[in-house]
Amino acid sequence: MLLRFLAAVLLFAALPAWAQTAAPDCTVDVGVTAGPVLDVTYRCRSTAAVTFSADDKVVASHVQDLRDGAGNKPAASGDGWTVQPVNGLAEVRYRYDLAAYATEANSTSTALRRGESVVSGLSGWLLETSGLGREPVIDIRAHTAEGLAFATGMPKVGDAYRLANTSVGFAGYTAIGKISLQEIAVPAPGSLRPGEPKKEGVLRLAILDGVSDSGRADLADWVKRTAEAESNYWQGFTAPTLLLTLIPTAGERTVGFGRTVSGGGATVAIAVGTPVDKRRLFNEWVLVHELIHTGMPYVMGRGTWLMEGAATYVEPIIRARAGWKTEDEVWHEWVMNMPRGAAVFGEGLASGREPYWAGAIFMLLADVGIRRATDGAKGLEDCLGGVLWSGMDARGRLSVPDFARVCDRAVGTNVFSTLVDQHFRKQNPIDLGALWKDLGVGMVNGQITLDDSAPEAKWRKMIVMGPPGRPPRPVKLPWQS
């Protein structure tokens, strides 16, 4: 079992290199004009018939004037069109009114429109193929009219965005139309570790239509400083390539919903209030939380508690180490909220109840356990970072036990796997009050008290602000610069 697992890890780690060198099975040329409206030319190498299918009936209803490479209209079957290849090439061309689709869909899980810009899952406008015998590698080239832009979270190969190792249906967001787009250089995952060569990744920031020039500048500054804070925790950024789309929303609080979709490349969509309130942005947790998700693989098999628990637990730590929260504020947040997840341990984490705070308690147990087992040399950041550095970034998938094994190898302990056995495979309850006492954490008149004479205080003092050998690296706020 372990050998099969290690082989899977090595195979996954090799996939990005394979994806960079493989010839594409399909190419897509997409012309973007005002609306936005798309003109799509889709070609796939094949000796057999290829079916091009819409994700659902709503998508299919917005496909206009679809023709094959000879200019003929192929017969539709359900939400798809089957095309015979000519000289080894199956081709379709169609027009797609993305603005109309996004207006009808009006959902973060599918597509949203703001003015002349749209954020949409790739399957919101690109057809899925079948009949090629495997998941195709697809190269996508965008040709935009003046004043318009196109962005995805996929890596670039030459002048094309490349979708590999996932289907169109599971691919992440695209941002298209009248968007403010900039590429921000970030340190590649793991590249800030001692002795590692310096490498750069890219964070593509797309801000949809509807924000003033000064608002866009404030949002970009917020993203850059948050990316720096994340990079300090992870010793490099969370993803080699990332698309972050900000969706202006009138009447929204400073930051609203956030959603991460990672197929083909990490993508995040977050609603931001208009007008932009620069000072309040840095008091919000959503962006830090979602970026943590982009540093982790999708955990299969009732693993929501692990993904959401890690993001919930690590988010205030990142902001504290950046100097945006105090240590007392972090412990106050945990003492007030973790009791919501404590009872779940009697049912087992696989029950799926209270994944955020039950998962956060698990991460606290793991953090203390790892520091205790390594005499403070390692902590949860080394576990999560180790999984990311092994090649298991947001594009990957792991089971709960396999995630635990990668984590344990990274820190040289069996702490995570033991806790998984106790609380995921089994239903061992916990005494949260006893844990607070051992850590020296108390509450008096609504104020946190920290007792340095408590049995586990030595480890508690490393959790929020980091171990002595790895002090926090503050990130100045705009009004402090």
Structural notes for this entry:
This protein is an alpha+beta fold and 481 residues long. The protein folds into three domains: 25-177, Immunoglobulin-like; 179-295, 2-Layer Sandwich (Zincin-like); 298-463, no CATH class. It contains 15 helices and 24 strands. It has helices at 2-21, 57-61, 98-105, 213-234, 278-281, 286-294, 304-321, 327-337, 339-342, 355-373, 380-389, 400-411, 415-425, 432-439, 457-463; strands at 26-33, 37-45, 50-53, 63-68, 76-77, 80-83, 89-97, 111-114, 117-121, 128-130, 138-144, 149-152, 156-157, 160-163, 173-177, 180-187, 200-207, 241-250, 255-261, 266-274, 298-300, 397-399, 441-444, 447-450. Helix 10 (355-373) packs antiparallel against helix 13. The protein is globular. The chain starts with a helix and ends in an 18-residue tail after the last helix. Residues 1-18 have low confidence and may be disordered.
Secondary structure elements and pairings:
Elements: H1 2-21, E1 26-33, E2 37-45, E3 50-53, H2 57-61, E4 63-68, E5 76-77, E6 80-83, E7 89-97, H3 98-105, E8 111-114, E9 117-121, E10 128-130, E11 138-144, E12 149-152, E13 156-157, E14 160-163, E15 173-177, E16 180-187, E17 200-207, H4 213-234, E18 241-250, E19 255-261, E20 266-274, H5 278-281, H6 286-294, E21 298-300, H7 304-321, H8 327-337, H9 339-342, H10 355-373, H11 380-389, E22 397-399, H12 400-411, H13 415-425, H14 432-439, E23 441-444, E24 447-450, H15 457-463
Parallel strand pairs: 1-11, 17-18, 18-20, 21-22
Antiparallel strand pairs: 1-2, 2-7, 3-6, 3-10, 4-7, 5-6, 8-9, 9-15, 11-14, 12-15, 13-14, 16-17, 19-20, 23-24
Helix pairs in contact: 4-6, 6-7, 7-10, 10-13, 10-15, 11-12, 12-13
